[in-house]
Amino acid sequence: MILTRYEDNRQSLHYETLPVESLVNHCIGPHCDAILKKRIECKISIQPENISLPTDEYLFLTVLNNLISNAVKYADEGGRFEMKGYQKESEYVIEVHNTGRGIPPEELEQVFEKFYRSYAPGKTEIKGFGLGLAIVKRFCDLLDIKIIIESEINQYTIAKLIIPISGKANTPA
């Protein structure tokens, strides 16, 4: 329903300048139990420290939460989860990595379609409706964020958010 509200322009964006590290920490917390239960090695690096971005908090948190949730859900037991943020020219990049089953190349574009679910062998126990990445894609479009997913079967998946900052981001003094 929330996606429809934004698509129909019945809900407007509320931009404010928010610290990236705080947003990431807010989203990681709810997944700590699953990370511990699956014994996932976890590494988070946000550079530069104290960087802030202008964004709509609700939409951005929804994007991060969905990406983190997927990374943890599809990570192998005893695997690795990494999240890093860094500035690259006039963009800020946030990468969410996990080791695990990966996404077949022919499915990479389909993962953003509503209700699309991969039914890879051995992973049918993973629950979901195929809406998470469709919402992520739409919210990224609304926020002018480019999202790219890279994956290697039985190795890793990386979701990259490329956020234009062109002088918008700031670091508090």
The strand order across the widest sheet is: 2-4-5-7-6
Q: Describe the sheet with the most strands.
A: 5 strands, mixed
Q: What shape does the CA trace take?
A: globular
Mean pLDDT: 84
Number of helices: 5
| Helix percent band | 25-40%
Low-confidence parts lasting 5 or more residues at pLDDT below 50?
167-173
H and E string: HEHHEEHEEHEE
Helix-strand category: alpha+beta
Distance between the termini: 40 Å
Topology at a glance:
Blueprint: H1 2-7, E1 15-19, H2 20-28, H3 32-37, E2 41-46, E3 52-56, H4 57-74, E4 80-88, E5 91-99, H5 132-142, E6 146-152, E7 156-164
Helix pairs in contact: 2-4, 4-5
Notes on the structure:
There is one protein chain. This protein has 173 residues and is of the alpha+beta class. Helices cover 29% and strands 29% of the residues. The chain has helices at 2-7, 20-28, 32-37, 57-74, 132-142; strands at 15-19, 41-46, 52-56, 80-88, 91-99, 146-152, 156-164. The strands form two sheets. The protein has a five-stranded mixed beta sheet with strand order 2-4-5-7-6, covered by helices on one side. The protein has a two-stranded antiparallel ribbon with strand order 1-3. The radius of gyration is 16 Å and the shape is globular.
